[in-house]
Amino acid sequence: MHGVSPAASVFLSVFMLIQSTVEALQVIGGNVTVVQGGTANFPCQLIGATETLNQISWQKKTREKPQNNNFFTILKTGPQFVNGNGDDGRFKFIGDLKAKNGSLQLFRVTLMDEGTYTCIFTLFPSGIHKTEIPLNVLVPPVTILKDDHPILGNEEVSLVTCTAAGSKPPAAISWLTGALTGKVREATTSTLNANSTTTTISSLLGVPTRELDGQLVKCVVTSAAMTMEETLPFTIQLYFPPMEVTILETSEGSFICEAEANPPANITWSRIDLPWPQSAVREDAVLRLKEMTPDLNGLYQCKASNQHGSKQQQLRVYVASGNCTACWVLFSLLFILIVAAVAAAAAAGYLYKSGRIQWSGDRQPVPTNSSPLEEQQV
């Protein structure tokens, strides 16, 4: 080194030695991906170092705290948190200072922990050597299956809706429609939330005819944040107002009102234009006539109703006075009654005198006032 002073020569030699040492050093880290709620391991290993290791420190820049800050230091005296940062019981030092291993563990990871973690080795005399470790947090979706309460009709509506809320990355939704393939279709939308998660909503659309009622479909949700796909079964229900209202005789003096409806109809009995008689009892859908007296005479109405509509049917009761203690005429067409009266005059006279009527124990529909009616004494 002609023309170089001894001091400069020594400095240059030391610099070259440090430079070659630095070039041989390497801090090994990596990328970390974990599902929310799980445990993240941050690997950090210094290799090729012969210098003195003074300390290992950690910095983090996360969703919760976007500013880079020191939060953990490993000294010869042991690991410690810096100014209480990160001291929530979730971080654990799993490395070894002597082995130049600064690895950390983070428990119960949340989306707010996502960000960049920096592992820093401080050596003498070369100084600081570091690596950045990105933490990616996966968030499984919250799945919800909702009945859209389709009402029986002939226009396309939403039958059922499947939601995968708050997923990272976005979840995918598909449908298994079985026997309804080609008769229903999917409509799917996705919305990006403020916290970078995505909510995916998929509806199954179809014309709500009787053919769809009771059919099984399945919503299938998949996501990288889930260990396996989730299948949510659903049986399609069609909703409709009372369609047919029938009054059935269950025993002598006892009648039940039944209606086809979904949801099931609420049944109420009332008396048209007259106060309710003491000898008649109404219990939900059942009307019971306890004593066959003329005060029961009149028109009774059974009303079936739900939130989609109502329908009613009527029953006319007539108890004759005198010796007849249980005489009934229940809705019948006028012309049938006239013909029947002529054809069965003798039998009717006998029944009137005896005051007896034979009752069937079977549940048989009784005639109603769907057509013009006339009271008849038997």
Automatic annotation (TrEMBL):
It is a single-pass membrane protein. Keywords: Cell adhesion, Disulfide bond, Glycoprotein, Membrane, Repeat, Signal, Transmembrane, Transmembrane helix. SMART domains: IG (SM00409), IGc2 (SM00408), IGv (SM00406). InterPro entries: CD80_C2-set, Ig-like_dom, Ig-like_dom_sf, Ig-like_fold, Ig_sub, Ig_sub2, Ig_V-set, Nectin/Nectin-like. The keyword Transmembrane applies. Residues 1-24 form the signal peptide. It comes from the Eukaryota. Belongs to the nectin family. This is Ig-like domain-containing protein. It comes from Pagothenia borchgrevinki. The lineage of its organism: Eukaryota, Metazoa, Chordata, Craniata, Vertebrata.
